[in-house]
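Design a sequence for this backbone.
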């Protein structure tokens, strides 16, 4: 496939609908099951620790499988791989819904993660191929809509399905939609050429080992008190050792899993770094807001999901806008505007109070979503602008892998900071509480000046804990704002593709 491959408008539309449907399904499944975990735990007779493997297994399987997308697409063709992945994702979703034990659903989630890993990078590469260069920004706006809005809609849809139906519908909903997408892909997606490439088994093993160990460390670190556990030390050592060996193998092997020439492209490297930051801020924010709204503000699961939805609306609107103006405005300017809006929204969130209503939550969410759209669309276009066409599938897989890794790092980082800042804030607040701060009993119950005993202490401790937790959340938002500001210098790495000079007739 090449830029703007000759297709009818109808065929291009059908392919776009099919690949975006598959993309949305895969992205939704990264977050849709989160809210259903308590129900799965009860239904499957699992413990709190084992039920978390429903999420962990999917993340690890997807991270390990993503890097081989480029090789598989070259070897068997994009159409064959895309259709096979869509069938595998749909079938494994049905198996997850039918699982009768925790072991079964974890095994089926591994299959779902492997199949789903190929969908997003293939969709991105195909959208580039079926559209001419002048429509790449619009295509990436559409692609970004699915990738960025999916994680936001996931908790809302998952909460509604679980509350009114069953946790099994979280997976069953994929079956009819996935079936339609598969049929459309088979019918309208043209067959591409195949390239025989030797499979770098050693490189794949090293990368898979590094990613799996790193994801395990991030996922289980908080639960095991991080480096107080030997398991975390082992996982950290294995991840670092395997990653170092992979880098050495990458630059010395004759036919490595990933062509190292890709990393000579400055825009692509800058895009990966931007994607790392974007994934961290977006997914970390999504992991913080729902528990904040539910535990400190008293909103229900469904209400908290609806309050995070405006961020998705802001993202959708800004992506549609950027898709229209990207050809007339320097993409670096759009990135600057997006980063500034994201930093502004996080600054607003660092000023949340326990007495506020829902308006600041909605406003900061819309602004942050607007900023994400201004970042994501030009970022996707710039990352591929100076890169060779034959690198697109591999580059798309690496960009999506970077976003997922960034999200995992961001979630782990804010979780650690939340716990530690809560302890620090709680200790600081407690040190300023004295016996005179306890409320006296009403005159009808006791003599003036007599203090309530254990009940008053429990009430005071509850309020101190509530205030300390709010301070910890605000500190997290402040750190996320600083991380966003730290990404501004990356704009200096990006260069525009030179326009061809006009030649005289």
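Sequence:
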């Amino acid at each position: 496939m090449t830029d703007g491959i000759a297709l009818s408008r109808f065929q291009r539309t059908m392919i776009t609908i099919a690949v975006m449907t598959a993309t949305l399904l895969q992205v939704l499944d990264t977050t849709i099951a989160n809210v259903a975990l308590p129900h799965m735990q009860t239904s499957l007779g699992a413990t709190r620790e084992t039920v978390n493997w429903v999420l962990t297994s999917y993340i690890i399987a997807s991270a390990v499988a993503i890097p081989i997308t480029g090789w598989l697409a070259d070897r068997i063709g994009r159409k064959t791989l895309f259709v096979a992945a869509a069938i595998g994702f749909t079938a494994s979703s049905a198996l997850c819904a039918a699982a009768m034990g925790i072991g079964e659903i974890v095994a089926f989630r591994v299959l779902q993660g492997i199949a789903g890993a190929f969908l997003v990078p293939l969709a991105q590469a195909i959208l580039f191929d079926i559209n001419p260069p002048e429509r790449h920004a619009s295509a990436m706006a559409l692609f970004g809509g699915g990738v960025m809005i999916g994680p936001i809609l996931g908790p809302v849809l998952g909460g509604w399905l679980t509350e009114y139906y069953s946790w099994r519908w979280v997976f069953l909903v994929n079956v009819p939609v996935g079936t339609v997408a598969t049929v459309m892909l088979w019918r309208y997606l043209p067959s591409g050429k195949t390239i025989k490439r030797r499979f770098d088994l050693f490189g794949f093993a090293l990368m898979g080992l590094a990613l799996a160990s790193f994801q395990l460390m991030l996922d289980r670190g908080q639960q095991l008190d991080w480096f107080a556990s030997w398991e975390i030390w082992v996982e950290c050592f294995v991840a670092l050792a395997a990653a170092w060996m992979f880098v050495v193998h990458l630059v010395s092997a004759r036919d490595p899993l990933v062509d190292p020439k890709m990393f000579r492209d400055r825009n692509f490297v800058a895009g990966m770094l931007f994607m790392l930051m974007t994934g961290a801020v977006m997914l970390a924010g999504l992991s913080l807001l729902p528990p904040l709204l539910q535990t400190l503000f008293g909103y229900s699961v469904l209400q908290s999901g609806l309050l995070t939805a405006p961020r998705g609306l802001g993202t959708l609107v800004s992506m549609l806008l950027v898709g229209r103006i990207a050809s007339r405005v320097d993409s670096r300017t759009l990135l600057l505007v997006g980063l500034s809006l994201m930093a502004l929204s996080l600054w607003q969130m660092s000023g949340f109070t326990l007495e506020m209503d829902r308006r600041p939550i909605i406003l900061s969410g819309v602004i942050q979503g607007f900023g994400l759209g201004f970042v994501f669309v030009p970022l996707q276009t710039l990352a591929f602008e100076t890169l060779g066409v034959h690198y697109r599938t591999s580059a798309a897989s690496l960009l999506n892998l970077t976003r997922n890794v960034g999200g995992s790092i961001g979630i782990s980082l804010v979780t650690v900071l939340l716990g530690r800042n809560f302890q620090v804030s709680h200790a600081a607040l407690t040190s300023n509480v004295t016996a005179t701060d306890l409320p006296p009993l009403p005159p009808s119950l006791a003599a003036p000046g007599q203090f309530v005993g254990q009940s008053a202490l429990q009430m005071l401790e509850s309020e101190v804990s509530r205030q300390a937790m709010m301070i910890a959340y605000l500190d997290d938002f402040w750190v996320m704002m600083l991380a966003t500001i730290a990404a501004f210098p990356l704009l200096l790495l990006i260069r525009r593709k030179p326009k061809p000079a006009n030649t005289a007739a």
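Residues 260-432+456-496 form a domain with the Growth Hormone; Chain: A; fold (CATH 1.20.1250.20).
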